[in-house]
Amino acid sequence: MSPAPFPYKLVATDLDGTLLRGDGTVSERTREALTAATVAGAAHIIVTGRSVPWTRHVLDDLGYQGIAVCGQGAQVYDAGAHRLLTSVTLDRQLAGLALSKIEAEIGPLAVAASRDGLDGEVLIGPGYRTQEGLPAVYLDDLAAVWTAPLNKLYIQHPGLDDDALVTAARQTAGGLVDIVMAGAGIVEILPLGLTKATGLSLAARRLGVKAAETIAFGDMPNDIPMFGWAAHGVAMANAHAELKAVSDEVTTSHEEDGIAVVLERLLGAA
After folding, report:
1. What are phi and psi of 253, to 5 degrees?
2. Measured between alpha carbons, how far is 57 from 61 in angstroms, rounded to an integer?
3. Per-residue confidence of the chain (270 residues) as pLDDT tens digits?
4. Calpha distance 184→218 (Å, rounded)
5. 214: which strand partners?
6. Within 10 Å of residue 50's Cβ, how many Cβ atoms?
7. 32: which residues sit within 8 A by CB, 6+ positions away?
8. Residue 133 burial (CB count, 10 A)
9. Are 114 and 160 spatial neighbours (Cβ–Cβ below 8 Å)?
């Protein structure tokens, strides 16, 4: 009796906290498992909250040549050609109104912004804490944020944790924009209705792959729509409780080759 074929045509992986270990690398075991899945007929798509300028160097280092979904679904990027295929921008008037409403409710926020485009700068406002080593422009005056198209805003609060900030922001401005948690200290304001599932569905259509043929891996609440779209959602052991609650299974952590553990099992059955 012949073994069953690999059950998915698309493997969608988040980047930080999922594919990448804490030191920013991908283990050899995980690389080999993804390569084996590709040989078995599945495409691999990276789906990340990072915009293209904060993703491109990681993809280049990995030797990744496929399509990547960046900016929480706002950007579909051809990594091999270094070309932006689609881009969705944040309405700056709505974003400014949302920001004002949130601050009126919970007090001043530290703000950063990601400009649209292949080389869009990330603008860091006063007091905003960001990961060291990522390219950014530091501002003394937030007025510069609004002078060019954006794909997202980042917000931080001096007293509220991420979960409380997301809840308060959604209650205050959820009808104007979407608010998601993408990682520790990373709460984002996005165009209303934009999610990772939006970009993933566009990328999958380009590859001729359906949601029912997709397995997705993630670790944060911003991955929930992607899990809702894919046939099978796998949360990492280090994932946020909200994502684990809607996952189909929980694997080991990003430090313990959680993606490889699942793919090796599926490949072993193939």
Report:
1. -75, 170
2. 6
3. 445 689 999 999 999 999 999 999 999 999 999 999 999 999 999 999 999 998 998 899 888 999 999 999 999 999 999 999 999 999 999 999 999 999 999 999 999 999 999 999 999 999 999 877 778 999 998 899 999 999 999 999 999 999 999 999 999 999 999 999 998 999 999 999 999 999 999 999 999 999 999 999 999 999 999 999 999 999 999 999 999 999 999 999 999 999 999 999 999 864
4. 14
5. 10
6. 23
7. 260
8. 8
9. no
Region for 113 from its dihedrals, namely left if φ exceeds 0, alpha if ψ lies in -120 to 50, beta otherwise: beta
Residue-by-residue DSSP string for 67-116: EEEEGGGTEEEETTTTEEEEE--B-HHHHHHHHHHHHHHH---EEEEEES
Helices and strands of the chain, counted as H and E runs: 8, 14
The CA-atom distances, in angstroms, between 147 and each of 98, 114, 120, 123, 249 are 17, 12, 13, 11, 44
User: For the whole prediction, is pTM greater than 0.70?
Assistant: yes
Greatest pairwise CA separation for the chain in angstroms: 68
Which position has the token pair 């009796």?
1
